Automatic annotation (TrEMBL):
Belongs to the peptidase S9C family. Keywords: Cytoplasm, Hydrolase. This is acylaminoacyl-peptidase. Pfam families: APEH_N, Peptidase_S9. The lineage of its organism: Eukaryota, Viridiplantae, Streptophyta, Embryophyta, Tracheophyta. One of its GO terms (molecular function) is serine-type endopeptidase activity. It comes from Sesamum angustifolium. GO terms for biological process: proteolysis. It comes from the Eukaryota. Gene3D superfamilies: alpha/beta hydrolase. PANTHER family: ACYLAMINO-ACID-RELEASING ENZYME, SERINE PEPTIDASE S9 FAMILY MEMBER.
């Protein structure tokens, strides 16, 4: 008879033997150390009452693996300026955790703090107004007024007015009325979802903005009075525009305007990672509340027409007013919009704000920093910005500070908006990446635990330059090489080739937890910025469309051969990993160079354009990258057999029969950008051909696979997979 009271049988996870499980456990402990490292999301600085000093506040994030959420906290510091022009930080003893917080925005003076907590389901959104010691006001905004407040960094726009009494913000418009049914059929009168004996129908389907915006249909503009909590939708803005990035304009003859970015809502292509969606700056009269001293605080309702401020340009983003209110500065992604590239080289422009309040299409747009087509060696390559500071101005009132990509680094720049002069603030001779969080505070993060590693940015000549290439496309591209400082001359570490997505994106020398983890396992890293990456001028960006699967593949192989020729890598122990278009390259490489790689890992890879074009939130991307410049004009929602044949020929699936490399797939089941069928089809084809294949599916993840538990399990498996096949 069996001993039912004995010890339970130890179960080993599928795919692991006892020895592998032991190594898996060891790797997980190491990865946990990297995962626990906090990151600074945002910072604010304020004038201090103490002479020669200021105060700063930092919003910090740290993964919480058990709850599978990001833990957010606030850390404060006093900054003292010393006589020798150095500064010292007097930190608060502990950070303060902000549970369930969606957004934190300090008022212009720093005397108040707005905390927003978006709730799930039908629960209201909570607004809290803090002073320096306590919560002063708290308001619950029901979903009948609006849905969640946008805190995504793109549509997000949360802006205090100058006297700190009203806040403008962007939130999801109220849910449309849905049909109600009961046992008697259709009910003409609206009922609640929970009313006994009835249920809500679905109603008409409406497009959302794609990846990461599932269920988000219409970003709309609202204002809230912080004294009474009254919320109003801003009138004059119709549903033909999706709203974002709102700021308060200077008062003109007693009337205040709100300036915001508007995206046409007629056909909503995916907007995440895609600045090629046409947009413009608009102005609308701000609602006015009667002063607090009044006995009744009525909303001064006034219908207002919106004014398009940037009709002559196809893109306008991140509006910022100068400190004196005389001009409005904005970034433009017109190169992306006009060409069709999902990201490209940016430009900077300004509008002189009329003192008489006469707003209209006659306002002249003045170029400040134009698009750089082909930079000279070592010179400014153009603007590549994903955000602006809320308060970017130096004390002279006309110089703004921003961070931008420069080759394979992130740098800090100053721009004089009067002369257009661009200067590099971060060191010219540094390969490190720098970011500006707030003026007064500039941080470079270097971890002492990685002191055993070194990195260099190497220039790699283009192989087989063709005569019809532009000058910018013929210049060397770059790769970041990470390796141990001390190693034996005749011993080469195994190499991991890391490939960014996009393809019009860039890998910089900024600290990466995942890359640091892989390097700590004994691998050297080769992080390739193939032609088409950002940070090298517009000609380099535009050289890739129409040549994906060939030019970018050749660049990666050239970079690998360059490293091998220098004796920096063991050619028998090379692994490759990439996400999205990086996964496209990964699966292309193991098909086009089947004997080159010992292991591969692909995260939400593009494997078949012909499959992706009918399921992705960005079908236009498939046309542009496959056809090049003509792809924008020939795009159609119903591709022809000829289109599909070209898509197949450009895709990794066309080389799948040659693959020998053991390959790991990591897929997000809620990915709207590259739906999982792409990766599943390719993985099934590999299994059919007898190639060692492993698939891990993350049921609740989108394209980036960034939820804490999923990110952890992804790179734990990547590390174990590469260790197994690159010993």
């Amino acid at each position: 008879m069996d001993d039912v009271g004995g010890s339970p049988i130890k179960q080993i996870p599928e795919g692991l033997d006892a020895a592998s499980e032991e190594e898996f456990a060891s790797l997980s402990k190491l990865l946990q150390e990297f995962t626990d490292i906090p990151t600074i999301d945002k910072a604010w600085t304020f004038k201090s009452e103490i002479e020669d000093g200021s105060s700063a506040m930092f919003l910090i994030s740290q993964p919480d693996l058990l709850s599978n959420k990001m833990r957010k906290s606030i850390l404060s510091s006093h900054i003292l300026e010393k006589s020798n022009n150095s500064v010292s930080f007097d930190w608060a003893p502990f950070p303060i955790e902000m549970t369930g917080v969606s957004a934190v925005v300090a008022s212009p003076s720093g005397s108040k703090l707005l905390v927003i907590r978006n709730s799930e389901g039908d629960s209201p959104t909570h607004f809290e107004i803090w002073d320096q010691s306590q919560v002063k006001k708290e308001f619950a905004i029901p979903r009948s007024i609006h849905g969640s407040v946008y805190s995504d960094g793109w549509f997000e726009g949360i802006s205090w007015n100058l006297d700190e009494t009203v806040i403008a913000y962007v939130a999801e418009e109220p849910d449309p009325r849905r049909p109600t049914f009961s046992s008697f059929g259709y009910n003409k009168e609206s009922m609640t979802d929970k009313e006994f004996g009835s249920w809500k129908g679905q109603g008409d389907w409406e497009e959302d903005w794609g990846e990461t915006y599932s269920g988000k249909r219409q970003p709309a503009l609202f204002v809230i009075d912080i004294f009474c909590g009254e919320v109003r939708a801003v009138t004059g803005v119709g549903r033909e525009l999706s709203i974002g990035q709102v700021v308060w304009a200077p008062s003109v003859e007693g009337q205040q305007y709100l300036v915001f970015v508007g995206w046409p809502s007629k056909r909503k292509f995916g907007v995440k990672y895609c600045s090629n969606r046409p947009c413009a700056l608009y102005a609308v009269k701000a609602p006015s509340f009667i002063s607090e001293a009044s006995a009744t605080r009525n909303y001064a309702a006034e219908d207002s027409l919106i004014v398009n401020l940037t009709q002559s340009i196809s893109s306008a983003l991140f509006p910022r007013f100068s400190q004196d209110g005389k001009f409005l500065v904005f970034l433009s992604a017109k190169s992306a919009v006009d060409s069709g590239a999902h990201l490209a080289t940016d430009s900077l422009h300004k509008i002189e704000w009329p003192s008489d309040g006469n707003l209209g299409p006659s306002l002249k747009i003045i170029d400040v920093v134009p698009v750089v087509m082909c930079p000279e060696d070592g010179c400014f390559p153009g603007l590549y910005c994903s955000k602006f500071l809320d308060k970017p101005w130096l004390s002279d009132g006309h110089t703004m500070v921003l961070s931008s990509v420069w080759g394979s680094t992130q740098t800090i720049l100053s721009v004089d908006v009067l002369s257009g002069r661009v200067s590099r603030i971060s060191p010219n001779n540094s390969n490190f990446s720098w970011d500006v969080l707030a003026l007064v505070t500039i941080l470079l993060l270097v971890l002492s635990s990685l002191a055993s590693l070194q990195f260099d940015i190497i220039k790699i000549p283009v192989r087989g330059v063709l005569e019809n290439l532009t000058k910018g496309a013929s210049k060397p591209f770059e790769a970041i090489c990470v390796s141990p400082k001390c190693k034996k001359p005749d011993l080469h570490d195994p190499l991991i080739v890391i490939l960014h997505g996009g393809p019009h994106d860039v890998s910089t020398s900024s600290f990466s937890k995942s890359s640091a983890f892989l390097a700590s396992l004994g691998f050297s890293l080769l992080i390739v910025n193939y032609r088409g990456s950002l940070g090298f001028g517009e000609e380099a960006v535009q050289s890739l469309p129409g040549k994906v699967g060939s030019q970018d593949v050749d660049d990666v192989l050239t970079a690998i051969d360059h490293i091998i020729d220098k004796g920096l890598a063991d050619p028998s122990k090379i692994a490759v990993v990439g996400i999205s278009h990086g996964g496209f390259l990964t699966t292309h490489l193991i098909g086009q160079a089947p004997d080159k790689f010992a292991a591969a890992a692909a995260r939400n890879p593009v494997c078949n354009f012909a499959l992706m074009v009918g399921t992705s939130d960005i079908p236009d991307w498939c046309f542009f990258e496959a056809y090049g410049s003509e792809g924008k004009s020939i795009f159609t929602e119903s591709p022809s057999a000829e289109n599909l044949a070209l898509f197949h020929s450009k895709s990794p699936i066309s080389h799948v029969c040659k693959v020998k490399t053991p390959t790991l797939f990591l897929l997000g089941a809620r990915d709207l950008r590259v739906p999982i069928y792409d990766g599943i089809q390719y993985a099934r084809a590999l299994k059919e051909n007898g190639v060692e294949t492993k698939v891990i599916m993350f049921a609740n993840d989108v394209h980036a696979i960034k939820r804490p538990q999923s990110d952890f399990e992804s790179f734990l498996n990547i590390g174990a997979w590469f260790k197994k096949y690159c010993r």
